[in-house]
């Protein structure tokens, strides 16, 4: 038996594997299947975000008050930075589709250049995302969480702007230090302590008559409810429990921790996709340089990876809308 | 390669391009304009658009519609959906649209219900 492959006479016929259903190659088809399923995963996350937001519709943080930062500039500037990120990602999509286009014409040099640009834009986006996370985690004004888990933020009564804890609270030495495992119970650990205690915040507020508290509740004008001086002091004294600076998975100075959880989870999952996309792009980039696709006489691999890359951009368009705009 | 024929019209034939490369840049311009409009509306948040229609602010409806417009052009022109067969296009798009609508209906409806339970003051605790 020198040849086990039997010719069946069906080559090139529908059931002989000779045609491509829907005029799409196997690889492209599988990429589309993956994209549909991944799109549903993201829809699940965003719909869950919508669920939680509808559940706390009257107390959800206002995105324009949360994401106000741009690098090297300290005035609140909502939207600008995230608009920049969006543009970078759209731009990377454009260079990717140009690479695919150049691939159809078998122009190796152009594909190389456009892929390189795509990788750079992708990396800039991931870096911006990291900066956004870092800023969000660090926080800016600080707040006090009540026993019921609500966030109390501080406002300067004179100009109506937010006032940071560091601007009116003085840290006193209460002898409390963070527990370290080499110092006492080795199996217990403790995170970073807030700069101030609730007691110190109360003292600071009593000493500064211009400080008011605003609650999480959104009033009819779409603003957070501002309390009077007496109400503010009473609420802080009766219910103040923890000083919160920045955001993590347990507490969030901007409002409900759910907001932070969803932000970390959804943008994190998206950022992970971008990161994977950059990695795959780099692999493809080296394959292009080595001439792999040149020898194959087909740059379809660039097209398939391109599909994934555009999908990542597509998801960002939705994340942008539901986290920053709506 | 000749077997990659591209359809070079966007906006239902309103804008026609000479080459695929040109079309790509054209779509970029379109997407940029839409994003800029979104960002400007997001910063200004005009009072006139704050009224509710179908239990959501007009502004939010505008944002969502503009997002779908952007999604359409990314899928159709960047992902070349415009050049795929009708069947593939429908398989991908309608499957996703149907399931997403289903998911949104269930979850948003439930979220609104939970909000009402809190709002009516019947249950205070998280559940």
From TrEMBL, chain B:
Query: GO CC annotations?
Result: plasma membrane
Q: Kindly state which keywords UniProt assigns to this record, in alphabetical order.
A: Cell membrane, Membrane, Transmembrane, Transmembrane helix
Where does it localize?
Cell membrane
- Chief subcellular site? membrane
Taxonomic placement: unclassified sequences, metagenomes, ecological metagenomes
Q: What residue range is the signal peptide?
A: none
Q: Which parts pass through the membrane?
A: 24-46, 58-79, 91-108
**Protein name as annotated:** Subunit of Alternative cytochrome c oxidase
Topology of the protein relative to the lipid bilayer: Multi-pass membrane protein
């Amino acid at each position: 038996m020198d040849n086990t492959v039997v010719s069946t006479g069906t080559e090139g016929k529908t059931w002989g594997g000779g045609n491509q259903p829907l005029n799409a190659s196997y690889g492209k088809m599988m990429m589309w299947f993956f994209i549909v399923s991944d799109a549903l995963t993201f829809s699940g996350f965003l719909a869950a975000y919508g669920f939680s937001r509808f559940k706390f519709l009257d107390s959800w943080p206002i995105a324009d008050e949360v994401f106000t930062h741009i690098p090297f500039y300290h005035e609140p500037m909502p939207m600008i930075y995230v608009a920049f990120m969006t543009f970078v990602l759209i731009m990377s999509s454009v260079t990717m589709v140009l690479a695919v286009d150049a691939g159809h014409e078998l122009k190796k040099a152009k594909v190389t250049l456009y892929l390189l640009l795509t990788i750079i834009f992708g990396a800039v986006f991931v870096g911006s995302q990291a900066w956004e996370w870092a800023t969000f985690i660090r926080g800016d004004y600080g707040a006090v969480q009540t026993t019921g888990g609500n966030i109390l933020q501080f406002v300067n009564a004179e100009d109506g702007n937010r006032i940071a804890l560091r601007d009116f609270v003085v840290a006193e030495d209460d002898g409390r230090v963070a527990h370290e495992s080499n110092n006492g119970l080795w199996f217990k650990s403790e995170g970073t302590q807030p700069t101030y205690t609730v007691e110190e915040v109360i003292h600071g507020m009593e000493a500064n008559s211009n400080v008011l508290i605003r609650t999480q509740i959104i009033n009819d004008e779409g603003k957070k409810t501002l309390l009077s001086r007496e109400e503010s002091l009473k609420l802080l004294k009766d219910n103040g429990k923890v000083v919160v600076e920045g955001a993590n998975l347990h507490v969030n100075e901007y409002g409900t921790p759910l907001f932070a959880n969803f932000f970390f989870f959804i943008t994190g999952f998206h950022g992970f996709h971008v990161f994977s996309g950059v990695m795959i792009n780099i692999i493809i980039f080296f394959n292009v340089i080595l001439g792999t696709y040149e020898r194959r006489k087909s740059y379809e691999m660039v097209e398939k990876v391109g599909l994934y890359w555009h999908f990542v951009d597509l998801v960002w368009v939705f994340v942008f809308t539901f986290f920053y705009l709506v | 390669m000749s077997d990659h024929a591209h359809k070079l019209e966007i906006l239902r034939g309103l804008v026609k391009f000479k080459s695929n490369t040109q079309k790509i840049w054209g779509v970029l311009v379109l997407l940029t304009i839409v994003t800029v409009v979104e960002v400007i509306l997001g910063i200004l948040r005009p009072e006139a658009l704050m009224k509710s229609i179908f239990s959501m602010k007009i502004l939010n409806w505008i944002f969502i519609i503009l997002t779908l417009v952007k999604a359409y052009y990314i899928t159709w022109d960047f992902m070349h959906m415009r050049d795929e067969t009708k069947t593939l296009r429908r398989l991908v798009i309608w499957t996703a649209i149907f399931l997403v609508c289903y998911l949104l209906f269930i979850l948003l409806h439930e979220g609104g219900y939970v909000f009402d339970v809190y709002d009516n003051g019947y249950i205070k605790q998280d559940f």
